[in-house]
Amino acid sequence: MAEPLGAWTGPVSLGPPPAAVKGSRDNWLGRSASWGPGANLQRRGGTVTDALRPMPRQRLYEQVLDRLRQYVTEGGLRAGDRLPPERDLARRLGVSRASVKQAIVVLEVQGLVEARHGGGTYLVRDSLDVEPVEEMVERRRRLPDVLEAREALETKLAELAAERRTDDDLAALRSALDVMAREIGQGGHGVEGDRLFHAAVTAAAHSSLLAEFMRSIAPQIAESRTESLRQPARPARSLAQHRAILEAITAADPRRAATAMRRHVRTVAKVRLLDWEPGD
């Protein structure tokens, strides 16, 4: 078992600011330099640098995340192990329970821990490789647009696939679902099978222009796929929805295929990230 986290007396200090430069302001910064916060400072030769811009302030719960990651690594904790209760973490780290709770929520959003009502917080993986909060904020900002585009494009693709699919297209769709089912059966999220299935629907639609649109946002689609499939119980639900889409395409029922795909993409959109608030 890991050693206690130890008391935490407050935010990390970077030490006192450097002593002021003696002499003329232009002795090394160049002429007409400004000392105001965030000012662009001019170097010799006229090149502008913002190296002395104000440093970003790390939120307290981000520091808690750093400590929890260290605790899990040094303690050799594995998936299924339980973290100390929030009250205990707050006391041992010397922070408020609110800061600990914010950190736990970030871990939940990233699918790294599972908080069981009345039963504590458990690791889902063998480590806490936490995504930087600023990257989460950026993904949260762009995700609604990606999901909106997916619903518009993929609903139409499913409709066309039901009208135009060939026997080879149906075989590719079935094969993709076999891959996804196998991944989930082995404890994975089914990410590769999901990718193959949606690619097979796109191919079955036989629309080169819509396929090009899908390729143009492929990285964003992959991001939304990963975000969705790491939600609790989501892989099995997505697999069932894929099977409903395949049944409609196999039956050559465009309306049912479009409805099934729309329902699926709206399920994909139900992710904790969109409910998460970064806080201060």
Automatic annotation (TrEMBL):
Keyword DNA-binding among UniProt keywords: yes
Q: Which InterPro entries match?
A: GntR_C, TF_FadR/GntR_C, Tscrpt_reg_HTH_GntR, WH-like_DNA-bd_sf, WH_DNA-bd_sf
Q: Which stretches make up the HTH gntR-type domain?
A: 58-126
Output the SMART domains linked to this UniProt entry: FCD, HTH_GNTR
Region named Disordered: 1-21
Cite the entry's keywords alphabetically. DNA-binding, Transcription, Transcription regulation
Tell me the PROSITE patterns matching this sequence: HTH_GNTR
The membrane spanning regions, by residue number, are: none
Q: Which GO terms describe its molecular function?
A: DNA binding; DNA-binding transcription factor activity
Which top-level group of life is the source organism from?
Answer: Bacteria
Protein name (Swiss-Prot/TrEMBL)? GntR family transcriptional regulator
